[in-house]
Structures are given as structure tokens and as C-alpha cells.
Design brief:
By secondary structure, the chain is an alpha+beta fold. It is 33% helix and 29% strand. A five-stranded antiparallel β-sheet has the order 1-2-3-4-5.
């Protein structure tokens, strides 16, 4: 599976997992995002992660970089009316993913917006 397809699938799965548990049955489908700007390599929780910007102009996905013992795992900052919401999913080492989560949840909306901007400056991965 190509990296691009994986990221699209990951984001879609992340959004489905982020849906409210009590969502009405007639609620709209989650948006389909392509997260292909980047990657940036960043350290969260003392492990290496790839960061990609999404095509909504705000959202960011953070996935385990090759060799990261927290693999497989991803985090997703989705943009909404109240700013960014952080979600994560995977089966990686919980100690490592919890440490990364602590670092990521400490980021402000401005920090996440800067990550998005930095991803956009790297360009799109095809």
C-alpha cells in the first residue's frame, strides 16, 4: 500500500473513530481528507514521528516513523468549531504512545497551525 493511500485511509479511520458515541443516525458522513503535505520528522514522547498536513487547510496527522517502537499508531489533530481536537489510535507500545500523547496534547492551537504550515512548506508527497 502506498504511503499516500495509507494516510488517506488512516485519516478516514481516525475521523470515524472520532465521531461522538451518541451521534444521531442521520448525522452527515465524516469528511474525507488527504494528508499528503510533508512529511516533517518530529519527536514526541522521545520517539520519532512523521507529521503530514491535510487538504482541509488545518488538520494534521502524526504517524509513527519507521523504526519507532510505538508502531503502529497515529494521532490526528482535526480542526473543528472549537479549535483542534486530538485523537489517536493504534496498537503500539502504550507506554510510548502515552508519552507522545502527553507531548501532543500540550500543543496549543497555534503550535498545531505552525506544524500544518511547516508541512505545507515541505510540499506534497505523491
Amino acid at each position: 500500500m502506498s504511503t499516500r493511500r495509507f494516510l488517506t485511509l488512516t485519516v478516514l479511520v481516525g475521523l470515524l473513530g472520532a465521531a461522538p458515541a451518541q451521534a444521531p443516525t442521520d448525522s452527515p458522513s465524516p469528511p474525507h481528507l488527504n494528508c499528503t503535505s510533508g512529511p516533517l520528522t518530529r519527536t514526541f514522547g522521545k520517539t520519532s514521528w512523521y507529521v503530514y498536513g491535510c487538504d482541509d487547510g488545518h488538520s494534521v496527522v502524526v504517524i509513527t516513523a519507521p523504526g519507532n517502537p510505538a508502531m503502529p499508531f497515529y494521532f490526528f489533530f482535526v480542526w473543528g468549531p472549537k479549535g483542534f481536537e486530538l485523537h489517536g489510535e493504534g496498537t503500539g507500545d502504550k507506554t510510548l504512545t502515552d508519552a507522545a500523547f502527553e507531548d501532543l496534547k500540550a500543543l496549543t492551537d497555534s503550535d498545531v497551525a505552525r506544524l500544518y504550515k511547516d508541512c505545507a512548506s515541505v510540499g506534497r508527497r505523491t
